[in-house]
Amino acid sequence: MPIAKQLIELSSKQYKPFFVGINGCQGSGKSTLAAFIEHIVINTSQLHVVVMSLDDFYYPGEQRRKLAKQEHPLLATRGVPGTHDINQLTVVLSKLAKGEQDVVIPRFNKATDEPELPNNWSYVQQSADIVLIEGWCWGTEPQTAGELSTPVNDLERQQDQKAQWRSYVNRQLAQAYSPLFELMDYWIYLKAPSFDCVYQWRLQQEHQLKRNSLQQDKVMSDADVAHFVSYFQRLTEHSFTCMPKKANCLVEFTPQRTVANFRLAKR
């Protein structure tokens, strides 16, 4: 696998963990790719790989509800920048960057919409050589005031008429998330052909989650999914423009999620 081979080569040239950011819309295969890279690396080298997901750092529901009262009602729904525990993520990334052992990584249960209990968290027991962190907005750049002024969908037109929600999200992205992006040594971007595909891909994810979950009450219906993905539209479409420019590896998909184009930067 060319990506894994390049990561092995690059990580061997430095004396600190090699951080890889993976960006892609919902259902684009970020976690699948991360797991595959991990499998290839550990089976073809002596390197230790840690895989993380931004999704595992979502605030608990109670904390998001408090945030919704303080800032904007739309922040009760997980997803956008501002709904993650960035302080916790910063601590974890800092420990991994220092090569510390016994690092604890939380897990989030999307079926219950709450963090997993600590006994289900992951424990990194040795120093990492490569750290893969994936997230739908991981690496996405903040927008300008002009870009924020025009609503992109009915959710923003009807429930964010004064642009308070999207402005708050953008500030969080600029002030809290972007400094962490600077830790990344390498970027992979999984590019969907359009936002229209995101609903179908996310729907497939939810159907799989429903099949695998014993707790059906928090699994979304098809209509819920359509509403849910609208929270992600602005930054997903913005990523279509900003992420290819910074990506060391770009994978472009067809609507059927087959690879239409693959670009690997020469390093």
Automatic annotation (TrEMBL):
Pfam family of the protein (one): PRK
Protein name from the UniProt record: Kinase
InterPro entries registered for this protein in UniProt: P-loop_NTPase (IPR027417), PRK/URK (IPR006083)
Record has Transferase as a keyword: yes
Keywords associated with the record: Kinase, Transferase
Species per Swiss-Prot/TrEMBL record: Thalassotalea marina
GO molecular-function term, one example from the UniProt record: ATP binding
PANTHER family linked to this entry: URIDINE KINASE
Domain of life: Bacteria
Location of the Phosphoribulokinase/uridine kinase domain: 19-135
